[in-house]
Amino acid sequence: MMMLKVLLGVMLVGLAASDDANCPQPFGRGPGLGDMRVASRLADRIDALEKRMDTAKERVTGYVHEGEIVRARVDSLYEEAHHCKSHHFQCGFPEDRCMLDTKVCDHVKDCANGHDEDDDICTNRLPIGSVFDGDMPSGACGADIDHIRFTVIWEQRLSYFPSQIQLKAAVTVTHHDGTVESNIKKGYYSFSDHAVFLEAEDGGDGRISLIDCIFDGVQDDRCVAEMRDGSGHICATFGLVRLDDHH
């Protein structure tokens, strides 16, 4: 944009010099009226070009983001087709190799393609202050919970176990009768799973549920929450959205 403005300035100087050399100036030196009209039209065209460039930039940014989402979905489908057992990480094309998830984001490229150390894998999506909030399906898991929110209040990444971030979250639940209950829950964020796992939450009738929230690897402003009962069975799935500005 600055280059366009500089170009306009150079053209004005050139117009003034040409006017000085070829036309009489009864009222002093300077560009003539015709030159000023030309300059005005050029300025209008430059403004229009700048607006078009800004619009194009926004579109390109949108296309890039959409491309990242598509890539994440393709990666997810690839991982499903070449599924690894629990606590293992899929290196992806061309290896199709599964390795222990404890080797992910340990600052050593164990996959031939380096996928285990990619930035989109090793991004901490839950820094301190992260807040996620959402409504639970009515009667989910037999619990009398309508609404749930968690806020990350503490975290630590151990040098000898870098594949996870240990954390604590303030979990607030709103029950059917409107009562609100808050507790501090321990948990961890797993880089290989793009997910946070929080310890059991009392559903209000003695049933215990584990809270997981899984990111798609691209959109950090939302995650898919899964509630598990005491046997580990997924009894509810719902969305949580980020309320803070860390994304």
From TrEMBL:
Q: Which residues form the signal peptide?
A: 1-18
Tell me what organism the protein belongs to: Dodecaceria pulchra
Disulfide bond found in the keyword field: yes
Query: What's one Pfam family the UniProt record gives for this protein?
Result: Eryth_link_C
What are the residue boundaries of the Annelid erythrocruorin linker subunit C-terminal domain, all occurrences included?
Answer: 127-242
Report which residue ranges the record marks as coiled coil: 39-66
Keyword annotations for this protein, in alphabetical order, are:
Coiled coil, Disulfide bond, Signal
Record-linked InterPro entries: Eryth_link_C, Eryth_link_C_sf, LDL_receptor-like_sf, LDLR_class-A_CS, LDrepeatLR_classA_rpt
- What is the official name of this protein in its record? Hemoglobin linker chain
